[in-house]
Amino acid sequence: MAKRDRAKSYARKEAVKDETEAKGTDKIFLSFNLKHLDQTQPKNSPQTIAVWHDNDLLQSLVHRIMQVSQLTRLEAVQQQQLKIYGDFPPKDKTDFSHPTFVPENVYWGVLKHVGGQTGTVAGYIEDDVFNVVFFDKDHRFWITPKKHT
User: Fold this and answer.
1) In this model, does residue 99 exceed pLDDT 60?
2) CA atoms within 13 A on the CB side of 3
């Protein structure tokens, strides 16, 4: 294939892809990254993979990730599967500390309902990737007053 023909072929493929995305037929689904998982927090009761295994939460976590991975970021927020807070919680509202390896200006949030009502996974979101940073089986990432008690 001549050089000019290859260039036309690539341009044609790119145009088709752009047209498909413009029509909205290709959804970008939420994905999860565990590279930044911090298993040293909270200091008074670290939540590690082993702790979550012992509390039968790992299977629930995998199922939740599978469910939410079928949604776009917007759909996950609209269906209240994912809550985006924005800033890291104030010190008086959390048992966790902001890890030094996570930039200050990211959007923090939680994947809700992992193994029940209180279990969450906290992290930050970049584009359509939820970066898991903390396991939070006791809902201590962003402490809120109990309702209806």
Assistant:
1) yes
2) 0
